[in-house]
Amino acid sequence: MAANHKRITDMLERRPNIIEEMARRQSEFDKFVSSGGYAQATGRLSAFQEALASVERLDKLLPKADVYQRMLGARPLIPDTVADALARGGALAPMLERLGTAAALDRSIVEQLAGVEEFIAGTNAARLSRAALSSNFPDLVPELRFPTAAEIAAVDLAGVAGVGDPAGEWARATAAQMAGIETPWVRDDQPELSIEGYAAFKGMTEIVARTSPAAPRATQLVRAELGDYRREDQGDEAVDDAMLASGLRIARGFDMRLASLPMALVGNIFVPFGMVPEAPPEADPDELDAVISLMFRQLERRLRAFIDRSMKAGVGEKWIRQRVHKNIREEWERRRQADVDAQRAPGELFDYADFGDYRGIIERGENWRDVFQPFFKVKTSIGETLGRLSVIRNPVAHVRPLTVEDLLVLRVEGNRLYRWMGEPVP
């Protein structure tokens, strides 16, 4: 007791104002909590903790997990508004490249990020385009321009795409297409990345379109370009942060050349199913998000109906109780009850499934054997397709800005999934 009393007395002598200081800090903390800042900070910390957990799971399993670790270390220094603006403008790739090669952000980049944050705060949202960011921060967001004929000719287009082209016809046609694009689309700092990305994506979509979705060639090509998803990891779905979600894709092997393509080019030249080709090249990001979200929800509804129809035919009307794990079924029931409690009209129980649930249902041993193998042929192939699409499910259901990678994946894997189900591609 005497020793404790002496320690307290000594502390008060060294810091006579400690009581007032503690009261002041408590008051500041109370204000922080009441303003909502504490909840926001806690949510942000939780997101980074989820991402860190993903790194620990991915480490040593994927070739680029170390790149993602560097991104994760630098991510807290990047304001959320800046990360979201870069994602919405299709300008994440240059930042991800910097984070992937540097141990930390250098001072000049940190200063530019602070400038971007100020610029965003003082700019009308309607004017916050990639062009505006490029004009003010060219080192951070490279300007887009048209390629020169020499730059296109310098790239082995067929070789990049993996297309057999002994007569050079494919390369000439692709070069002509590139020259005819009417909106600036190559990065001023590295035009070859955009040109190679265009050729690689064009080659992949053409091969996928004329090949069975379960064919080894299609599966291997998509895996090489969009990443390896043979190993399912719930951490991919847990990330609500656009930059970290892109980082996880890179860790799985996503081709960064594809990410260098601007959103306008992907949305209009490589027209995804359900999109209107005549849409203006500089579409409003909010409208583009809405269109992509609609496309994805339509795909998900078709997949849910396909699973329900197939399971009823192969197992019976009570397939949910017989062939869905109890924990998953109880979670659906909980969500349905939440609608009832909120006086919303409840749907069918299967309507409350998450996208990740579909993969588990299809891959479950007896379901695969009795129902789905005749449709999908190769379990790992359909599993990878659903794994890549499930990453998009998060921003569609929540608020993360959609990225150019999301649109590229939806373009390829949505097409494959429709064909797997025997559905006409919209």
What can you tell me about this protein's structure?
The protein is mainly α and 426 residues long. It folds into three domains: 2-28, no CATH class; 50-268, no CATH class; 285-420, no CATH class. Helices cover 68% and strands 1% of the residues. It is built from 24 helices and two strands. It has a two-stranded antiparallel ribbon. α12 (191-209) runs antiparallel to α13 (216-226) and α18 packs across α23 (379-397). The radius of gyration is 25 Å and the shape is globular. The termini are far apart.
Q: Which range does the strand content fall in?
A: under 5%
What is the share of helical residues?
55-70%
Number of helices: 24
Uncertain ranges:
36-45, 275-282
The gross shape turns out to be: globular
Secondary-structure element order, N to C: HHHHHHHHEHHHEHHHHHHHHHHHHH
Which oligomerization state do the chains in this entry correspond to? single chain
Task: Work out the radius of gyration.
Answer: 25 Å
Q: Biggest β-sheet, characterized?
A: 2 strands, antiparallel
Side-by-side strand order of the widest sheet? 1-2
Care to count the β-strands? 2
Structural class: mainly alpha
Number of separate structural domains? 3
What is the mean predicted local confidence, pLDDT? Answer: 80
Q: Measure the end-to-end span.
A: 79 Å
